[in-house]
Structures are given as C-alpha cells and as structure tokens.
Design brief:
The chain is of the alpha/beta class. Helices cover 38% and strands 20% of the residues.
Length: 483
C-alpha cells in the first residue's frame, strides 16, 4: 500500500536554500518512492518560488489564515508534487527568507511560520478538499507547530500521524507570550505540556510535545540531545519522550553530487581515476590565488560561527601553513571571523585564499579539487559537507560529534590496517586537538598509498539516501500500524 506524506519546511533545494535543511527536504521525496511513499512538499511562497508558481493551479483559498488572505498553489519540485502557500503579506518581500538584508530576523517570523504550520495541519486533517495525507512530516522549528495544530485544533477529518525532525536543536523558534492569542489555538494549549516554553511560545518545543515521533539527523545526535550540553534546554522533554526519538542519518542526492557527472568540475573522475582530480586542484589554486604545488589543500565550506569551530580554526592557520598546508575557504557569518580569515589570507598570500559568501558551483569545485575538508564543529546534528567530501574523495577532518562521528571512520592504526579508514577524527575543539588533526592529515597525505585508499573508501561509501529512505518509510508505517 502506498502511503502519502506531507513534508513541510521553510526551504527545499533547488527552489530555495540557505543550508543543509534545503538539501534534505529536496532529496527525501525521491528516496521514499522505492519504499512505497508518495511525498508532497509544502513551502512558503517566497519570491524565489515565482518560476514554480507560474501556471500553478489554485487548489484552496483562505480568506483569513491567521489574519491574512492566502491561496494554496499546486506545482512540482524535481518531478514531485509541490504545494506553495501564497500569502504575499507574509512572504513576498525582499531580503532573506528569515530576515532582512541587514541580517535581522523578520519581526513577524512567528506569524509567517505559524501560518505555514496551520496550512500543513489543515492539509493533514481534512480541511482542504481533495487533499489527504497519512503522514505529516515537519522539519525544524519553522514547521514544528503543525503537530501542535493537529493536536489542539485539527480539521474535520482524521488527523495524519506526525513526525518532527530536528535538524539543529540550537534553533528553536521562541517568541513572546503576546503572540499566543494570534495563533488560533485554544487557551488550554498554553501549558507546560503544550506550546508554553519559558513563559513564551516555543515552536520547536510545541512540535516535540505533540508529535507522534521525533527524529534527529544522526544516531549520535539523538543520544547527545538527551544531555544538557547538546539539548539546549529541551533535554528533559527529549528524555520523557525517549521511546519516540529516532536517529536517522541524512543522505545526499547522488544525482546532484556525483564527481563523475558534475558540470561544476573541469575534470570528472571516479574512484578508479583519482589522478584526474589534479586538474580540479589546479583550478582551485587559480580561483583562490594559491601557489601551485603538490602539498595538500585544505578547504572549509561553512558558516563562519562558533558552533562550526571557526574561532578555533582561525587560531591555527599560521600552524597549518607552517606544517605545509594551504587553505581555500568559502563561507560567511560572524563579521569578526570573516575579518580574521581575511587577515590570515593577507598574512599568507599564496597559502590561504578566502571567498566571503556562498557559491554553489564553487562549493562543488572545492570538494572535487581540495585534498581535505576541515569540519571542527562543536556540535553537528548530521552535517552534509563531510558526506560531499566522502563522495568526492575530499578527505574529511572532523570533530568526533553527532553525524560527523557516525559517517566518518577515523584513520587510526586498526582502521588503516583493515583498509576501512575514510577520514580523521579529533576529540574536542581546541587549538591543540585541531593542530594534531591537521598534522595527522599531512602525515597521511605524505603516504600516497594510504591516502588513495582513504579516498576510495569514502567514494565507495553509501552516503546516499537508500538506507535512510527505507528507515523513514519503516517509521511512517510503524506509526500507521500503531494507530
């Protein structure tokens, strides 16, 4: 029997993307098809979706959706059904999808994403004609109120079973209690076991309370968020719902991330033709004004924030250069960190190159041309850049946390002897641990036979969605059976 799932999120590749959430939401529908799940994706009607909206069919109209007029449009995303919440007063604006051009959050984000969640709940409980779903799958805080609406204010039909996926516990969607009367929920919902959270309204917290199942994007992160260091204040709630928490590691879309067919690479290659990567390495040197050479190029493709360990990385750049490494960095974030990396590039011309911002094709080139990718995150629910690195033979150098620990096999002596190593781990994110990891990486790079084996192991690893798609489908079916 085919199950129908409604996936609701604030972004999805290739239509709108600010981070890895979009990649996951964009790739999961195709991963579920072989397992008998038909997925429809619900997205807000940002200006970036204008092309997808052209010629779209209007399937519903709300004269008053939490105080605003809205339409529901039916279109397609990558050959799969797409629903667009067309609410111009909420989503038709310049700037970013979460904030203005100055980087400030939109003050009405509570309203924007409550409307998205209310729409999802209407679709998942019979309030929209000719729309039926067995499963409602909400991603992160922007969609997490949907299960709360199903619980406290469902439509006239049988509510779908609900899943909330935590992509990053650090982003919870907390708003002042003054917004509660505008949410269209009964007074009883503002309670400790409802949407109330530290005296306000917690969107993620509300979804975690109401959902039939909770997933995180790696098994290790599912364990970590039970502890205060990673639970961000919600560890107690997670502990009380422990039986409903599942860790399912993310995958990547191998149709998009494939070094054999990637149009962003000057030279395509396979695990059997790794020497062709040298052409891409030369292109990286040119793009980042790096001296030409045979030593290792490290890359960073990241938000420049403390969570990502960038404050520690910037402290060790002089050591990285002294050890014989070069660095090509692509990212943006904290203004102080941006300036610090640019200062390091000025200190070490030809050894460190920095591009502030994000460029999708350039990120592909870095994976296909750099030798190793540095990911010293203090916490990482799953991470996708290390998966791209594995797929492209760009050896991941990672902190032993979350999905990084789950997906990269450390090149310790036993793993090297067994021929299974795919990367380098370091415990903790300190100056000393990171320098040691970089030194280990350079030493392994200087042993070409071992290095090529690590590259090939990574490229042959299952980093796609096959296994994870099956796990999500199994979870959906278990929820239906439990009903």
């Amino acid at each position: 029997m085919t199950l129908t799932a409604l996936s609701v999120a604030s972004e999805a590749f290739p239509l709108v993307k600010t981070g890895g959430l979009a990649d996951v939401v964009g790739a999961l529908p195709a991963a579920l098809v072989p397992h008998g799940v038909a997925t429809t994706t619900l997205l807000p009607g940002y200006p970036a979706l204008a092309a997808a909206s052209k010629g779209a069919k209007v399937v519903h109209h709300w004269p008053d959706l939490l105080g605003t007029s809205a339409r529901l449009l039916a279109a397609e995303i990558a050959g799969h059904p797409l629903l667009i919440l067309d609410a111009p007063t909420l989503f038709a604006r310049g700037g970013g999808i979460y904030g203005d051009a100055g980087g400030n959050d939109w003050p009405d984000n509570w309203h924007r994403f409550a409307a998205l969640a209310r729409t999802a709940a209407d679709l998942a409980s019979g309030a929209v004609a000719k729309q039926h779903f067995d499963i409602l799958h909400a991603h992160d805080w922007q969609a997490a109120m949907a299960p709360a609406y199903l619980r406290y204010a469902p439509g006239p039909g049988i509510p779908a079973r609900s899943v909330v996926t935590i992509h990053n516990m650090a982003f919870q969607g907390w708003f002042d209690a003054g917004v509660f009367p505008e949410l269209g929920l009964p007074p009883g919902a503002f309670a400790l076991d409802g949407v109330e959270y530290y005296g306000g309204v917690g969107f993620l917290k509300a979804g975690l309370e109401a959902a039939d199942a909770i997933t995180t994007v790696s098994p290790t992160y599912a364990d970590e968020i039970r502890r205060a260091a990673f639970g961000m204040g919600l560890e107690g709630l997670i502990a009380t719902r422990e039986a409903r928490v599942h860790g399912i590691v993310n995958g990547i879309d191998r149709g998009v991330w494939n070094p054999q067919t990637d149009p962003a690479l000057p030279a395509s290659y396979t695990a059997g033709t790794l020497r062709r990567r040298l052409t891409n390495k030369r292109a990286v040197e040119t793009m980042f004004d790096l001296d030409r050479g045979d030593g290792p190029i490290f890359t960073v493709i990241s938000r420049l924030t403390g969570q990502k360990g960038m404050d520690v990385l910037v402290e060790v750049l002089d050591d990285l250069v002294a050890i014989g490494g070069r660095l090509a960095l692509l990212g943006s974030g904290d203004a102080g960190l941006e300036a610090a990396f640019q200062a390091a590039a000025a200190r070490h011309p030809g050894r460190i190159g920095v591009r502030i911002g994000y460029d999708e094709p350039l990120s592909h080139l870095l994976q296909g041309g750099a030798d190793a990718i540095l990911i010293p995150s203090r916490f990482e629910p799953c991470g996708l850049t290390q998966l791209y690195g594995l797929a492209y033979g760009c050896v991941p150098v990672v902190a032993r946390t979350g999905g990084l620990a789950d997906t990269v096999i450390d090149a310790n002596d036993a793993a090297i002897a067994a021929g299974v190593a795919t990367g380098i781990h370091h415990d903790g994110v300190t100056r000393d641990t990171l320098i040691r990891a970089i030194r280990r990486t350079v030493a392994l790079y200087d042993r070409p036979e071992i290095w090529r084996r690590m590259q090939k192991n990574g490229m042959r690893a299952d980093v796609g969605w096959t296994a994870s798609g099956m796990r999500y489908a199994d979870l959906y079916r278990s929820l239906m059976e439990a009903r």
